[in-house]
Amino acid sequence: MTDLEEFTLPKVSAINRYTSAYISGLHQHIPFLHLPTLNLNEVEIPRLLAMCSLGALYCFEKEVAMKLHSASMIFLGHVLFPVTPLDPYTDGVGIGGQARKRN
Hints:
Layout: H1 12-24, H2 26-29, H3 45-58, H4 62-80, E1 90-93, E2 99-101
Antiparallel strand pairs: 1-2
């Protein structure tokens, strides 16, 4: 999956199942999230999808895990590298990251 057009968010029951599997499975071995302060209602989408992806593996749903992983990486890319509209008064970025003005 290279874009999000074909991705659909799993149902709430599936998200609950995957996050529970993540917490009872992987988190027991690699506890890198602080569960007492983790609020799944406020967690960022890339993190939630990554957790669900790992949980889906613990539920033996490999195809779902792969789709969730791909979607989490795409969402993470949008968070880390947001697309901003081009400035109509510049023609790109010049040397040193400075925008050049049009003549």
